[in-house]
Design brief:
about 325 residues; alpha+beta; Hypothetical Protein Pfu-838710-001; nine-stranded mixed beta barrel; 6 helices; 14 strands
């Protein structure tokens, strides 16, 4: 469950016996058989004191960390974000010395059921379906519940965190005054199978989602998701940099949608840092102030990035029907 905790919270980390849960084998486009040895449950985790010094554990380890007391969980880390609007993207790249530097690149697609009026029922129902395709190596398919309410992750989902092909990430996401909890079930998809599925005609994006993800949707949200009626929206080209500046390890992501013959139809830069939940209220204003000191306005773009991108894709006629 996602929820608020008192001061008695303790931190837990991986390291225990596996449970007996397993997924059944799925369609021919993926290998999703999971043995009992793949799954770790909360009752098998080691409990350690929440008194370590700040920065003593690499940020990459934080993704699997949660806080627990009496069955309630909330993120152990918070992703603090600021989106730089299109008219300042070039200035931001120069300010952080990213212009001309090497970035990791990938493509992302979203799956939605847009109405003729351009409405986004899944997003409005707090469900985000995303496909990430890397040029080389595996991609992934994500079912994200944002915001995640306390009662949504009950039963087996309050215990599940990781298996051979899946991981459940519970994170805080802060952008300006929007402080939300997101619970994402990520399915690692073989890169060649994902590439074939995205290139095939007609598209059948619903087939990309695993049996476990279908169960997650059925059991953890009241939003109706017709996986056979999805539209594939995209691609969005993403360039990612990781940089270290005084006091912060920053992830910079540039999202662009190219229109043939024209300048980019969409051009945004997101800057983010990860903070411990107990530190986030202090880190957020300091991080935003550090962006302003570089001559940028972290408050100019007030919309949520995902909604803005989805609306752009729908209105520009970029959906790919299944």
């Amino acid at each position: 469950m996602c929820g608020e905790l008192g001061a008695a919270a303790v931190r837990i980390c991986h390291g225990g016996k596996p449970s007996t849960a397993a997924d059944s084998r799925e369609g021919s486009t993926r290998s999703d058989t999971e043995s009992a040895d793949d799954v770790i449950v909360l009752s098998d985790f080691k409990v350690i004191r929440n008194d370590r010094a700040a920065g003593s554990r690499p940020a990459a380890d934080h993704e699997g960390m949660i806080m627990m007391v009496m069955g309630a969980v909330r993120p152990g880390t918070i992703k603090i974000k600021a989106t730089i609007a299109a008219d300042e993207v070039d200035a931001a790249l120069a300010a952080y010395h990213l212009s001309g530097s090497t970035a990791r690149s990938h493509e992302i697609y979203f799956c939605e059921q847009p109405s003729q009026l351009g409405l986004l029922p899944l997003l409005d129902g707090a469900v985000i379906l995303r496909v990430r395709h890397h040029p080389a190596g595996p991609g992934d398919v994500t079912v994200k519940l944002r915001p995640c309410q306390p009662e949504q992750l009950s039963g087996q989902w309050s215990a599940f965190r990781r298996s051979a092909h899946h991981k459940l990430l519970i994170k805080g996401e802060w952008a300006h005054d929007r402080h939300l909890t997101a619970a994402s079930l990520v399915y690692s998809f073989p890169g060649d199978h994902l590439r074939q599925a995205l290139r095939s005609r007609p598209h059948h994006p619903g087939r990309l989602f695993s049996t476990r993800q279908r169960r997650y949707l059925a059991e953890c949200t009241a939003t109706h998701v017709d996986l056979d009626g999805l539209y594939l929206l995209g691609p969005v080209t993403v360039q990612q940099w990781r940089l270290r500046v005084p006091r912060y390890d920053i992830t910079a992501e540039r999202w662009t949608i190219l229109t043939p013959g024209d300048p980019p139809g969409l051009n945004l830069l997101e800057l983010s840092v990860t903070a411990e939940s107990e530190d986030a209220a202090l880190v957020q204003p300091a991080f935003l102030a550090s962006i302003r000191r570089r001559g940028l306005d972290p408050y100019a773009f007030q919309r949520t990035k995902t909604r803005y991108v989805l609306q752009h894709l729908v209105l520009s006629g970029r959906p790919r029907p299944s």
